[in-house]
Write a structure and sequence with these properties.
- There is one protein chain.
- By secondary structure, the chain is mainly alpha-helical.
- It is built from 20 helices and two strands.
- A hairpin with a 2-residue loop joins strand 1 and strand 2.
Length: about 525
């Protein structure tokens, strides 16, 4: 084993030990299910902001997005633009009202619980449907994070992909099981900071290491630099309206992401929401811009280009990893620092996987078990079941991610569309249209989920899916279908009870106690 490899391993051990320590420390504050799933609504503004953004971006920010832009050019940046717009709307328009309504609606702790309380669903239909949707799509989402972790260890240390997959999963499980929501959010704060430092430092150092004119070196990699750096080109062709709409549509998913909006539930006060919004938006702008720079600089810095697609070979999604290796790892005195920057990628992966595991856990134990099966379940039983569920979900996600050639970008895209189309329209309508009723809510969730599944998975157009045939992102279609179904079904069925209207007015007039 080389000295550089030993230095990298030491950096990883140091980082992972720190995450486990956070789990032990926060575990002392986790006394019951309210602490485990929501941290007692005591998140500070900075922790809530970086936790939300880190759990949002995941390995997609450091692997999926730079990889697609590295291969096809800055036309892929429309996804980042859409996500930035979605982030701003989510924090400025959705965060504060949603936090208020969860408090008014019987202090709801999860998204399914909020929807059930918001629509006075005495039969718990919404709780059951939304919990199933969360479990299905979060399995795919968690698998994307674990797959990114396996690729990281495989590319950097040459470890077998499957062994690396298991190691990453065990570490994430360890601190999530010990500390719950507080552990997840605290580690996400650390991980979000580390991600940002790595995104800024690595491409800037690499840029100044490029020998010769940047444009000339870029052109030598086989691209027309003018088109490659143009937002209006996608690979070898001018970008189409459908491609722009599809990429911008990613931003629609934000208000329906349970692992992101749960942070709004948990912020300690409304004044902290405003602080969180500013931090989250600035973080997103810097991180997205630097991911673009990683792709552009990486194309020239790593010439000849990375095109490997087989197991053990560098792929376009490993551009950031390869840059760190070339800048730091090949210089022994800097190998430990390079290892810490590689931990930034691991941080991105872990910050999403832990949140997703916790969301699945809360859906099963809090919403399905206590909400539907055993309503008198005591707090300890719910907490223990939550931890067991976390382990089971991780095991299933590992099975999904077992294929080393699975694409991080594809897995994230599918899960993001499913969750965004199922819940995004309903969250918006529940906050801003009081006429929305239970029947409309059910129709919105089901229609959004089914649209995405049909669009992305059923080969109904000459052996291809509708998504492949049209090139239109399923989230855009699913979001529109869901909104229409909520509106039409709500108007076509009975108005909500007077008690629902009264609670809506109470939420609109809610004032937080000083």
């Amino acid at each position: 084993m080389s000295s550089s490899t030993i230095a990298i391993i030491l950096a990883f051990v140091f980082y992972l030990a720190m995450m486990v320590f956070v789990g032990l420390y926060t575990g002392k504050k986790t006394k019951g299910s309210a602490d485990y799933f929501l941290g007692g609504r005591q998140l500070s503004g900075p922790v809530a902001a970086l936790s939300a953004q880190a759990s949002d971006m995941s390995g997609w920010l450091l692997m999926g997005l730079p990889g697609s832009m590295y291969a096809l050019g800055t036309g892929q940046a429309w996804i980042a633009i859409g996500l930035l717009i979605g982030t701003i709307i989510n924090w400025v328009v959705i965060a504060k009202p949603l936090r208020r309504y969860t408090i008014v609606a019987n202090n709801s702790m999860t998204l399914p619980e909020y929807l059930t309380n918001r629509f006075h669903d005495k039969k718990n239909i919404l709780k059951g449907i939304s919990s199933v949707v969360i479990m299905v799509f979060f399995l795919v989402y968690t698998a994307s994070a674990l797959a990114a972790g396996g690729k990281l260890f495989n590319s950097v240390l040459g470890w077998d992909y499957h062994m690396a997959l298991l190691i990453g999963a065990v570490v994430i499980l360890t601190y999530t099981l010990m500390g719950g929501f507080l552990a997840v959010c605290t580690t996400d704060f650390i991980q979000g900071s580390l991600m940002l430092v790595g995104l800024i430092a690595v491409p800037l150092i690499a840029y100044f290491m490029i020998e010769g004119d940047f444009s000339a070196v870029l052109a030598s990699t086989g691209v027309d630099s003018a088109h490659y750096m143009s937002l209006m080109y996608n690979g070898d062709h001018p970008i189409t309206a459908v491609e722009i709409i599809s990429n911008l549509a990613w931003g629609l998913g934000y208000c329906g992401m349970p692992h992101i909006i749960i942070r709004f539930f948990a912020i300690r006060s409304e004044s902290e929401v405003k602080k969180s919004a500013g931090i989250a938006i600035v973080w997103d702008i810097i991180a997205s811009a630097m991911a673009l720079i990683v792709a552009l600089v990486g194309r020239a810095f790593l010439a000849p280009v990375i095109l490997g697609v087989t197991e053990g070979a560098a792929s376009t999604e490993s551009v950031f990893i390869e840059m760190i290796k070339k800048v730091f790892i090949e210089n022994l005195p800097l190998a430990f620092i390079g290892g810490l920057f590689l931990c930034g990628i691991l941080a991105a992966i872990m910050s999403t996987a832990d949140s997703q595991l916790l969301m699945c856990s809360s859906s099963m134990s809090q919403d399905i078990y206590k909400g539907l099966i055993r309503k008198d379940a005591d707090d300890k039983t719910v907490l223990n079941l939550g931890r067991i569920t976390t382990i089971v979900i991780a095991a299933i996600a590992i099975i999904i991610a077992w294929n080393p050639n699975s694409s991080v970008m594809t897995l994230v895209s599918d899960a993001w569309a499913g969750l965004g189309a199922s819940f995004g329209p309903l969250v918006v309508m529940s906050l801003f249209w009081k006429r929305t009723n239970l029947q409309g809510a059910v129709a919105g969730i089901i229609s959004g989920a089914v649209t995405v599944i049909v669009w992305d998975y059923l080969p109904v157009v000459g052996g291809s899916t509708i998504g492949v045939a049209t090139g239109l992102y399923s989230l855009f279609v699913g979001f529109i279908v869901s909104i229409v179904c909520i509106f039409v079904v709500s108007l076509a069925t009975k108005e909500p009870d007077a008690s629902v209207y009264a609670e809506f007015e109470a939420y609109k007039n809610y004032k937080e106690e000083a």
